[in-house]
């Protein structure tokens, strides 16, 4: 009996977490139905995201109660900044909510900072494998993206950097995206140009940057420099924004297959003006983080 009580006291100083990813876009997830959190959430995100001294992730996602949905999702980037939305992250939230018994429904409504998003879940052997999310309508007004570039939205607009000019198309999926079509998404573009665009004065809230190589009207390759996280294996909202940008720029059709470093997403900008994203969600492992800090 004494041994059990010692174990319970030790666990009281720990925060349970689950590591999950969508196409390699990985986050630390905390079930806030059960766990308490430290006061400084941005610092927690920085600590757990550190790939050398922490768990290692592109950020932190909290899953908690909602009065208007089956659960609420809150997202923080690896640098501690708050993110409005994460497409790969919300698929994993859906999987977690179902697989961990929060809501055993094959259609879920998840509250986010951009509203309640609806998703359909597909099972294999009783667990969720694929998730189709209605990501809502793209925001195409420059002031709401936000960007100071001209146009509603800016389509193939000129963006001047220190050493080059880019032709960019800007879209918001609840978070801002700057899409540029390239012959090839090289390391130089993603790792050197990406950070310049992220912090460019034309984007008052910073911006996610997508480099798109169009393969056909229904297929493209994509690499992404994410605001607050750097290059990631995939970006769900970025893929959605790129699908919209492809149509606006006359490059692609309304239904496309996106090839990202971490895998593929199926995207549709429907005639209803809503964007649908379908892709996998994977649980990697669970553990305990000391002191919840």
Structure description:
This protein is an alpha+beta fold. The chain has two domains: 8-132 and 281-290, Diaminopimelate Epimerase, Chain A, domain 1; 142-273, Diaminopimelate Epimerase, Chain A, domain 1 (Roll). The chain has helices at residues 2-11, 41-49, 87-99, 187-198, 236-248, and strands at residues 14-22, 25-31, 59-64, 71-77, 82-83, 107-112, 115-124, 127-134, 157-160, 165-172, 176-181, 208-216, 219-226, 230-232, 255-260, 263-269, 275-280, 282-290. The chain has an 18-stranded mixed beta sheet that branches. The longest helix has 13 residues, at 87-99.
Please provide a brief summary of the model.
The chain is an alpha+beta fold. It is 19% helix and 41% strand. β11, α4 and β12 form a beta-alpha-beta unit.
Write the layout of secondary structure elements.
Elements (H helix, E strand, L loop, with lengths): L1 H10 L2 E9 L2 E7 L9 H9 L9 E6 L6 E7 L4 E2 L3 H13 L7 E6 L2 E10 L2 E8 L22 E4 L4 E8 L3 E6 L5 H12 L9 E9 L2 E8 L3 E3 L3 H13 L6 E6 L2 E7 L5 E6 L1 E9 L3
Parallel strand pairs: 2-3, 4-6, 11-12, 13-15
Antiparallel strand pairs: 1-2, 1-18, 3-4, 4-5, 6-7, 7-8, 8-17, 9-10, 10-11, 12-13, 13-14, 15-16, 16-17
Summarize this structure as a short list of keywords or feature phrases.
alpha+beta; Diaminopimelate Epimerase, Chain A, domain 1; 2 domains; globular; disordered N terminus
- Strands, count: 18
What is the C-level CATH assignment of the largest domain?
Alpha Beta
CATH-level-2 architecture of the largest domain = Roll
The CATH topology name of the largest domain reads Diaminopimelate Epimerase, Chain A, domain 1
Largest sheet geometry = 18 strands, mixed
CATH H level, superfamily name of the largest domain: Diaminopimelate Epimerase, Chain A, domain 1
Our Rg estimate from Cα atoms comes to: 19 Å
Strand content: 35-45%
What is the helical fraction, as a range of percent? 10-25%
